[in-house]
């Protein structure tokens, strides 16, 4: 079982580039403070580390080389914590599935990540069409998960015409989106996988 004490000992590994802590649910904000010292880190998986909060995210904003950050099921994270992620200019992957406290305000912050290629917003059910306006400005985006984002409608997808590099779009469980309106409102240039399961 990994705890904050264990992460403190990792702080000496100054050449570390890849750190997977998925499922380490005893880790708290103090542990992330130790990770913040690993300045060469490029990959950080914090999936299901449900104890961490916005305070802990502040600690990892020093990781300016970070390219992959997975916060799936870190359900104490709010818009405040996501705002700090904008200090990670090389970020290409951001996983926010199940972070149900985040709102459209988080997507205003995410829009500043100009190298982002993969964004997972599955089950972030406070996100609305207004927030998707900011997602549509992420012109490098290749993979987008909106699964079970139940507040979004066809209107939110209109600006997706600008996502010329989009390869994969998951809209499964988006109950307010219809096939007929989707076809008429958005053209997905080069999108080889548009998943629309359960749409009517």
Count all strands and give the number. Answer: 8
Order of helices and strands: HEHEHEHEHEHEEHE
Quaternary state reads: single chain
Low-pLDDT runs of 5+ residues are: none
Counted up, domains total 1
CATH superfamily: Ribonuclease Inhibitor
Structural commentary:
With 200 residues, the protein is α/β, with parallel strands linked by helices. It has a single domain, classed as Leucine-rich repeat, LRR (right-handed beta-alpha superhelix) (Alpha-Beta Horseshoe). 24% of the residues lie in helices and 12% in strands. The protein is built from seven helices and eight strands, in the order αβαβαβαβαβαββαβ. An eight-stranded parallel beta sheet has the order 1-2-3-4-5-6-7-8, with no helix packed on it. Helix 1 (4-10) runs parallel beside helix 2 (29-35) and helix 5 (104-110) packs parallel to helix 6 (129-135). The longest helix has 7 residues, at 4-10.
What descriptive keywords fit this protein?
200 residues; alpha/beta; eight-stranded parallel sheet; Leucine-rich repeat, LRR (right-handed beta-alpha superhelix); 24% helix
List the helices and strands and how they pair.
Blueprint: H1 4-10, E1 18-20, H2 29-35, E2 43-45, H3 54-59, E3 68-70, H4 79-84, E4 93-95, H5 104-110, E5 118-120, H6 129-135, E6 143-145, E7 168-170, H7 179-185, E8 193-195
Short description:
This protein is an alpha/beta fold and 200 residues long.
């Amino acid at each position: 079982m990994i705890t904050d004490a264990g992460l403190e000992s990792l702080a000496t590994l100054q050449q570390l580039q890849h750190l997977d802590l998925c499922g380490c649910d005893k880790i708290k904000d103090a542990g992330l403070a130790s990770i913040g010292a690993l300045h060469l880190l490029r990959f950080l998986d914090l999936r299901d580390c449900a104890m961490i909060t916005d305070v802990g995210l502040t600690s990892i904003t020093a990781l300016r080389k970070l390219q992959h950050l997975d916060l799936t099921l870190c359900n104490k994270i709010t818009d405040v914590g996501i705002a700090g992620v904008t200090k990670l200019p090389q970020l290409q992957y951001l996983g926010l599935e199940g972070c149900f406290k985040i709102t459209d305000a988080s997507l205003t912050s995410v829009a500043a990540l100009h190298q982002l290629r993969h964004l997972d917003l599955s089950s972030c059910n406070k996100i609305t069409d207004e927030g998707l306006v900011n997602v549509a400005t992420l012109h490098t985006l290749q993979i987008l998960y909106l699964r079970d984002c139940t507040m979004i409608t066809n209107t939110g997808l209109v600006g997706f015409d600008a996502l010329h590099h989009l390869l994969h779009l998951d809209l499964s469980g988006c109950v307010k989106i219809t096939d007929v309106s989707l076809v008429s409102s958005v053209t997905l240039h080069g999108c080889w996988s548009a998943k629309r399961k359960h749409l009517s």
